[in-house]
Amino acid sequence: MALRAADAAGIAAAFCLGTDTRLTGPIARGQLGQVWRLDTHEGVYAVKEWFAEPDLGSLSASTALHERCWAAELPVPEVVRTPGGDHTAVVAGTRVRVLGWLELMERTRRLPPAEVGRLLAELHLVSRRTTEPVIPWHSTGIGLDVWRALHAEVSAAQAPFGERFGALVDALVSAESVIAPPGQLLVCHRDLWSDNVLPARDGRIHVIDFESAGPADPSHELAMVLFEFGLDEPDRVRLLHQTYREAGGPGRVSRRGELGCRGARGRAAR
Q1: How far is CA 203 from the centre of its chain?
Q2: What is the pLDDT of residue 263?
Q3: Residue 128 gets which letter from DSSP?
Q4: Where are the domains of the chain?
Q5: How far apart (Å, rounded) are the C-alpha atoms in residues 178 and 251?
Q6: What is the sign, positive or negative, of the torsion defined by CA atoms of 180, 133, 270, 127?
Q7: Architecture of the structural domain at 5-100
Q8: pLDDT tens digits for 101-143?
Q9: Rounded distance, CA 89 to CA 212, Å?
Q10: Which of 33, 34, 119, 170 is the most buried if burial means most Cβ atoms within 10 Å?
Q11: Cα 89 → chain centroid
Q12: Residue 189's closest CA among 263, 252, 120, 244?
């Protein structure tokens, strides 16, 4: 079941957020769910609902990184828990989570590179090491057969980007062929595109949507961020990388294999 405006009081009760409730939206939509705005007499909140039941184990792990960042006073929204300590609840048959509200601005890849570099270093410095395996999408790639199967799926669904996607399959496989295997592993955000690294009206750059977090090489994530926010401009790339290193970030991009991780491959597939 999908949320409705009438579910405002139920959500507020589940998370003990007060009265005088109003649920507006959806105000944003992603691949896995959508976000509503909840107003109560205690404040304003973002409410995430999923289109399908999420994996609660993976969600708990990603929430742990999210809350480590919040505790370190990084610019991320606060995770609001229920009185019983849960980070999700089922309201009107729909699983939801609640986050602190941020006045975010339009996405842009032209964020100040020095600020992005420092922020990424701070994210990596609060992350914990892990020995959990890295899924192929974040390590070796998924291979020609899977790319062809994905193309067949989007073509069968008559997706508007199906033809363009098909034309990119060979280039995507070629990009995967130079991916370096991961080295040191941290629990990383793994989805730091400009959709999730956003300017806000408080003047800071904020990171949202930690639900893809998991094991990754910080050098690979650094390469991905260099690709996304460097804009193929050498001065921007150099400054972002330099600032990241000066802030103590553990990742290094020194060979082509690091750039293969989620760069052109990931952006082209989006």
Answers
A1: 20
A2: 47
A3: P
A4: 5-100, 113-141+179-269
A5: 18
A6: negative
A7: 2-Layer Sandwich (3.30)
A8: 999 999 999 999 999 999 999 999 999 999 988 877 777 778 8
A9: 20
A10: 119
A11: 21
A12: 120
Q: Which two tokens stand for residue 9?
A: 């009081």
- Count the Cβ atoms, other than its own, within 10 Å of residue 106: 7
The token duo for 262 is 């989620």
Phi, psi of 200 (to 5 degrees): -130, 165
- Amino acid residing at 235: D
**If one looks up domain 113-141+179-269 in CATH, what number appears?**
1.10.510.10
Token pair belonging to 172: 């995507």
pLDDT of 5 above 50: yes
Among the residues of 140-251, which ranges form H helices?
144-156, 162-176, 218-230, 234-246
Q: How far apart are CA 260 and CA 257, in angstroms?
A: 5
Distance (Å, whole) CA 144 – CA 137: 13
| Token pair belonging to 92 | 């009107």
H/E element, 39:
strand 33-40
| Single pTM value for the model | 0.87
**Whose structure tokens read 């390469």?**
223
Helix (H, G, I), strand (E, B) or coil at 49: strand
Task: Kindly report the number of other CB atoms within 10 A of residue 127's CB atom.
Answer: 21
Instruction: Report d(CA 47, CA 133) in Å as an integer.
Output: 31
The two structure tokens encoding residue 186: 């941290």
3-state secondary structure of 36: strand
Q: Which amino acid is at 157?
A: A
What are the pLDDT digits (tens) for 216-228? 999 999 999 999 9
The answer to whether the beta carbons of residues 70 and 79 sit under 8 Å apart is yes
Closest CA to 128 of 201, 212, 62, 30: 62
